[in-house]
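sry for the spam today, last one i promise. struct tokens for design, 317 residues
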């Protein structure tokens, strides 16, 4: 049963810019208010800014993310925007497939604390970047499941191969194996190369972490999203038949290596759904999110959709 907390503020705060506001000037003048709203609520939506093109959206995102970080270990390709670190296209992911609830780079040793999204082109339907409070999700999950993940952590396995998904060269921004091996050694990742030249990695991370400012316990991971049971059944069957059960591009397990069954993965996704907040995108929207306190997803959509994404305030865990 969901545990209610009537004293907690609404997850998504809302601010509205005055008509005709210059986006960069308005954001500069409201940065403190935006950061305070994110700290109090977990996320804030700024509506009404005239972000007429990608360049203005990129500039807006840069204004709010603080120190930008370069993405490493991405699980889907995305395009960087500009020379400064931290601003990208949204992940190139099939429009008809959801990106389930997750925390950005929760499997990495270095994680952005702050995310920003700016809408250049809203989709004709769907495509919501939905949100969920990770503290509420943690409270609502079965205690025995949480305890098991707290004791063992969660294991992520990946298979970077030349035929599917993102290659290791792009994921690690590396040109040779030595660079990748050095990165993995520095970031707690076990890596080995297969006979076809693919890279296989394993990393164990904490599933529950303290918030870096408040210290509150947060369900912080991508256990359900990157698990085989969350994949579309036809996609999972095709990949398994082509590459074998060990050759999926990503999969998750209990930290002791035990597999997750479908019921457990479905349960995690169901708890996320109980706490999901949705706000359809409008042109010019800017959404700023606390990446530890607030999970996010991307729902299937139709039509064109362009969202600029910012990764900011990196934290080495």
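last one done:
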């Amino acid at each position: 049963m969901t545990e209610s907390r009537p004293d907690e503020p609404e997850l998504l705060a809302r601010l509205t810019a005055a008509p005709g506001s210059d986006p960069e000037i308005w954001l500069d003048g409201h940065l403190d208010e935006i950061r305070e709203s994110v700290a109090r609520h977990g996320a804030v939506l700024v509506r009404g800014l005239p972000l007429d093109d990608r360049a203005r959206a990129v500039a807006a995102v840069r204004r709010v993310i603080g120190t930008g970080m370069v993405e490493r270990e991405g699980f889907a390709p995305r395009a960087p925007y500009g020379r400064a670190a931290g601003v990208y296209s949204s992940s190139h992911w099939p429009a008809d497939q959801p990106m389930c609830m997750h925390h950005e780079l929760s499997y990495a040793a270095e994680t952005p604390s702050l995310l920003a999204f700016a809408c250049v082109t809203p989709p004709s339907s769907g495509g919501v970047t939905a949100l969920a409070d990770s503290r509420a999700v943690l409270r609502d999950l079965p205690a025995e499941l949480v305890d098991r993940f707290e004791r063992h952590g969660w294991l992520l396995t990946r298979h970077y191969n030349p035929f599917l998904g993102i290659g290791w060269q792009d994921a690690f921004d590396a040109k040779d194996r030595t660079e990748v091996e050095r990165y993995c050694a520095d970031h707690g990742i076990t890596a080995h190369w297969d006979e076809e030249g693919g890279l296989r990695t394993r990393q164990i991370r904490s599933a529950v972490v303290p918030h870096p400012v408040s210290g509150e316990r947060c369900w912080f991971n991508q256990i359900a999203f990157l698990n085989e049971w969350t994949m579309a059944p036809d996609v999972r069957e095709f990949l398994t038949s082509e590459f074998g059960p060990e050759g999926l591009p990503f999969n998750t397990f209990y930290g002791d290596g035990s597999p997750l069954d479908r019921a457990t993965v479905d349960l995690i996704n169901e708890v996320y759904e109980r706490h999901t907040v949705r706000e359809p995108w409008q042109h010019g929207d800017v959404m700023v999110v606390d990446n530890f306190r607030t999970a996010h997803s991307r729902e299937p959509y139709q039509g064109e959709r362009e969202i600029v994404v910012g990764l900011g305030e990196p934290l080495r865990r």
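The first helix runs from residue 23 to 41. ok im logging off now
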